[in-house]
Amino acid sequence: MKIFNKSTNAIILGGIFFLIPLLLFIVLITHAIQLAMPLGRKLVEVFHIHSVFGAATVTIFTIAILVFICYLSGYLVQKGLVNDWGQKVEDKLFLFFPSLQILKYRLLGDKPVQESDDNWKSILLKEDNFYRIAFITSFEKGFYSIFVPDAPRMDAGEIRFIAETEITFIPISMKDAMNSLNSFGRDGALEKYMVK
Q1: pLDDT digit of tens for each residue in the chain (196 aa)?
Q2: Are the C-beta atoms of 190 and 172 separated by less than 8 Å?
Q3: Nearest 5 degrees, angle CA 122-CA 124-CA 128?
Q4: Distant-in-sequence, close-in-space partners of 65: CB < 8 Å, separation ≥ 6
Q5: What is the Cβ-side half-sphere exposure of residue 132, based on CA atoms within 13 angstroms?
Q6: What CA–CA distance (Å, rounded) separates 192 from 62?
Q7: Based on CB atoms within 10 Å of each CB, which residue in 30, 99, 167, 174 is the most buried?
Q8: Torsional class of 171: left (φ above 0), alpha (ψ -120 to 50), beta (otherwise)
């Protein structure tokens, strides 16, 4: 006799997939607070900050410092001031942690594309009678370097070199491309680009 039926197993498995990222997030936040606690303690002493919270003042001040650092970092990335901090470093991070690129574009959205920009450009690549989500990684001497990822994970795929005269593609929003890849094509509303 089975103790759990299929629907109960699915619910338990879904709960596990929910809890694992939540626990990892809690562990990371806890470690970040422990690392920043000495700085928070020093700043509370320097500014003579006393509050109703008593001993928890240092913890609250440390969390406020971490939130401020996150806000400032996000603002600088969004404005493009630290975007060029190292394309090679970012490429290495994406190589080892491909989901970071998906997270980056899903959370930050798109910023205006500039000609000098080293970031990938998302496209719908025309092949036979269908389109594939792909990324232009570079364009040199009349040839496009195209990365065609696997879905939903981008840690595998293929690289193609296509002459400018032989390629047909439609530029799309990076956020729409990432949403579509991450959801097996359900999200992203890519049909709006093909209808135009």
Answers
A1: 455 566 776 677 777 777 887 888 899 889 988 998 898 888 888 887 777 677 788 888 888 899 998 888 777 766 666 555 556 666 666 666 666 666 666 555 555 444 445 567 889 998 888 888 898 988 888 899 998 888 766 777 888 999 998 999 999 888 788 778 777 777 767 878 877 6
A2: yes
A3: 150
A4: 36, 39, 40, 43
A5: 17
A6: 46
A7: 174
A8: beta
What is the distance between the terminal CA atoms of the chain, rounded to a whole angstrom?
A: 57
Compute the CA torsion angle 168, 178, 83, 120 (nearest 10 deg).
-20
Going by their DSSP bridges, the two strands 169-171 and 121-127 should be labelled as antiparallel
In eight-state DSSP terms, residue 83 is: T
Torsion of CA 117, 182, 94, 194, to 10 degrees: -30
**Helix or strand (DSSP H, E) at 9:** helix 6-47
CA distance 176 to 191: 11
> CA-to-CA distance for 192 and 89, rounded, in angstroms?
34
Whole-model pTM above 0.85?
no
Which amino acid belongs to residue 48?
H
The span from the CA of 176 to the CA of 190, in Å, is: 7
With contact defined as beta carbons under 8 Å apart, do 101 and 167 qualify?
Answer: no
